[in-house]
Amino acid sequence: MADSRMPVVFYGHGSPTIARETNSTTKTWREIAKSLPKPKAILTISAHWQTRGVAVTAMERPQTIHDFGRGLGADLFQIQYPAPGDPELAKRVKALLEPSVPVALDQRWGLDHGTWSVLMKAFPDADIPVVQLSMDATKEPEWHLELGRKLQPLRDEGILIIGTGNIVHNLGVMDWNEAAKPYDWATRFNDYVKGCVVRKDGDGLANYLNAGQDAARSVPSDDHYLPLLYAVGAAGDDYKVKFNPDFIIYKSLSMTTITFR
Fold first, then answer.
1. Radius of gyration of the CA atoms of the chain, in A
2. What is the pTM assigned to this prediction?
3. Per residue in 46-57, pLDDT tens?
4. Per-domain boundaries in the chain
5. Could you report the per-residue pLDDT of 132-147, keeping only the tens digit for each?
6. Homologous superfamily in CATH for domain 2-260
7. Of 191, 184, 257, which is closest to residue 227 (Cα–Cα)?
C-alpha cells in the first residue's frame, strides 16, 4: 500500500502576484506536480481560510475567490481556476474527522488565492477536483497537527493533500527588493523548521514558539504557518523529504516548498 500512497506537499505560496509570473519557482511547482501520480482529487489547506469550527467545501463548482486588495492589479481579479469540486471527498473528509471534530459541509467559500495561485501553476489544466478544508482559528498548533494525522488514509485513496502557506511570513517588515538578503532571524527560523521536518520532530514544529524571538518575528500570526502542520501530520512518520524551492524573498517571506514522499 505504501508504494501507491500519494505524497504530500507544502507549498510556500508567497504573494498573490506570483499568479501572473512564470519564474523558477512556478516552474518548479509544475515539475513537482508532473513527478506525482495523477491525483484522483486534491485536498488543500490554505492559510486564507480560517473559521470558528471546521468546514470543508462541498459544492460541485467552487468559485475562484480573489481575497486580496485592488492595489495588486486589476488583472489578478480576472484570473479563474475552474477546477470542479468533489462533494463525495468532502463527505469522506467529514467522516474521517468526526465525531471528535464536527465538520460543516460548506456551500459558500470556494478556492482562495492560497490554493489557486499554486494550483494554476502546478496543475494548469484545472481538470482535477479540488476541495478545501478550513482551519479552526480557535485551536492550538498541536490540535492542527493531530487533525492532519487524521487525514492520512486519504493518501491511500488517490488524494493529494496540499498545505499552502509560508514558514516565514512577516509582511510588516518586508522589503520588495528581490535581491535583498533575508533577515538573519528569518533564515534561522526557516532552518529550524526544516531541521524539525528532517528529524520528524512534530513536537518541535507544533511548539515553534520555543524558537524564541526568531519564531515571534517569523510567525507574527499563525495563519500561514498552520498549513505546514497539516502537511506534516498527513505525511506520517515514514517519509523522505525534499526542499525545493528553498529560499526567502523580500527579506521575510519564505518560499520554501516541502515534498513528503
1. 17
2. 0.97
3. 999 999 999 999
4. 2-260
5. 999 999 999 999 999 9
6. LigB-like (3.40.830.10)
7. 257
